[in-house]
Amino acid sequence: MAERESAVHVEDGRPDAATEAARKRERQMLELQRERILDERTSNPHRRAALEAALKDIESKLAAIS
Fold first, then answer.
1. Structural element, H or E, at residue 21
2. Is 8 helix (H, G, I), strand (E, B) or coil?
3. Which residues face 15 on adjacent strands?
4. Positive/negative CA dihedral, 7, 20, 64, 27
5. Strands of the chain, DSSP E
6. pTM of the predicted structure, to 2 decimals
7. Helix, strand, or coil here: 15?
8. HSE of 2 in the Cβ direction (CA atoms, 13 Å)?
9. Tens digits of per-residue pLDDT, 1-30?
10. Cα(56)–Cα(46) distance, rounded to whole angstroms?
């Protein structure tokens, strides 16, 4: 499967449709996770720190696939 997702059209150097679809699904999943974290409210400092760390991780993954 990884081979298929990394396939590139030889003629024009663009990613194939399967790669683009996988990237789009990944982006949508990360955006949903980001929204859930942003919607969660807590007064617990440990939980808040964990949410902030998760948000930072998600945002770095989003930046990497953009």
1. helix 17-39
2. strand
3. 8
4. negative
5. none
6. 0.70
7. strand
8. 0
9. 444 444 445 456 677 888 899 999 999 999
10. 15
